[in-house]
Amino acid sequence: MCVAYTVFRLPEQLMGEQLMSGPGSRAPQLSITDPKVCRSYLVGTCPHDLFTNTKQDIGLCPKVHSEPLKIEYEAADAEQKRKWAFEYDYLRDMQKYIDECNRRIDSAQRRLEKTPDEIRQTNALVRHPTCTFSQ
What does DSSP assign to residue 64? Predict the structure, then answer.
């Protein structure tokens, strides 16, 4: 692949095909079952949209957040929603996010439990290793 083509396609990759299509052109319509569509967004809230600009921010979602598809999902009957099984994906994604938050909390709790003397000893070990390697 030539460099010029890669550079040409870079804005589309960063901004998405929908934003790059001009006002006169029509963006390609995605199906609700398309893997490019964020299922968490359709069901409820995308984890990437939670806690933006905080320490828990996980960045932008790589998938498409489409309001028309969300409306289509909300209008679907219970049988169709059960066939799609998006709720399962949503709960799985949210559980991963919760587990990551809990891991960070546990790590912070362990740091707080150390006494100042233990912290000094740990810092001294990290800064001045006791073992050296000779050649």
Answer: B
Distance CA 59, CA 47 (A): 9
> Which comes out higher in pLDDT, residue 1 or 71?
71
How far is 35 from 50, CA to CA, in rounded Å? 21
Task: Give the CA radius of gyration of the chain.
Answer: 23
Q: What is the pLDDT of residues 38-54, one digit of tens each?
A: 999 999 999 889 888 88
What's the rounded Cα separation, in Å, for the pair 81 and 98? Answer: 24
Tokens, residue 103? 């891991």
Q: Per residue in 90-113, pLDDT tens?
A: 999 899 999 999 999 998 888 888
Which of 89-119 are b and which e, b meaning 16 or more Cβ less than 10 Å from the residue's Cβ? ebeebbeebeeeeeeeeeeeeeeeeeeeeee
Give burial (CB, 10 Å; 0-12/13-18/19+) of 49. middle
* DSSP-derived secondary structure for 8-52: HHHHHHHH-HHHHS-TTSPPPPPPTT-TTB-HHHHHS--GGGTTT
